[in-house]
Amino acid sequence: MQGVAIPYIRAVERAGGLPVLLPFEVGRETASAFLQTIDGLLLTGGGDIAPAFTGREGPLREVLPQRDATEFLLVHRALTHGLPLLAICRGLQVLNVALGGTLYLHLPQELPGLPHDAPREQRHQPVHPVRIAPQSHLAQLVQTQELGVNSLHHQGIRDLAPGLQAVAWAPDGLVEAVELPDHPFALGLQWHPELLVEHDPRMLRLFQALVEHARTFQVARKLQEAG
Ligand code: MN
């Protein structure tokens, strides 16, 4: 997957947001300038993070080091400026590595048991449950402590980055969602809610939360600009 898959765009639109896409083949200045124009950041799924950033080799898929570099920069700026952030699948892994965490580079080898890499035909189906921390923002949003999710990943969080809080787990103990407690809205999900929004309002709610926080951010930004 070399670009942004259509379901992400549709999910943001369905949630009332205006989807804007950033090419990742840009320099730091362009990426920084882009951040001045948006009110929320969605990090989408995609290939694996390059060994240069994880420090480890593995059976990697679709590695694009330039995308990694751009997304690390975006994450750091988003966190510094309180920009609302929803990070999905690869996005959650980028968030974790950006903040100093580590990954399982290939779950079938490093955490065998529960298959997380479901066939593509099952991308719209819940294939394993996640248990959600009752006090989390995520639990508040989806109004439940157990949720069936789809699962299309062969990597995952090994050591959680300092500052991140795990808020959902698969039955094998793998972290499936994280939050950043000191941030207005920073949520990372290992599953793909964008493929489930049509039939599950709880999945749409996650995108609506991003859009709502983006609106609040926009108001604050405009007030600041108006001086
Ligand atoms: Mn999974």
How is this structure best described in words?
The chain has 227 residues and is α+β, with helices and mostly antiparallel strands. It is built from eight helices and nine strands. It has helices at 6-14, 28-35, 51-54, 65-81, 90-98, 107-110, 137-142, 201-226; strands at 41-43, 85-88, 103-104, 128-132, 146-149, 156-157, 165-169, 175-179, 186-189. The strands form two sheets. Strands 1-2-9-8-7-4-5 form a seven-stranded mixed β-sheet, with helices on both faces. A hairpin with a 5-residue loop joins strand 7 (165-169) and strand 8. Helix 2 runs parallel beside helix 4 (65-81) and helix 4 (65-81) crosses helix 5 (90-98). The protein is globular. It starts with 5 loop residues before the first helix and ends with a helix. The mean pLDDT is 94. Manganese (II) ion is lined by residues 116, 128, 151, 153, 170, 176, 190-191.
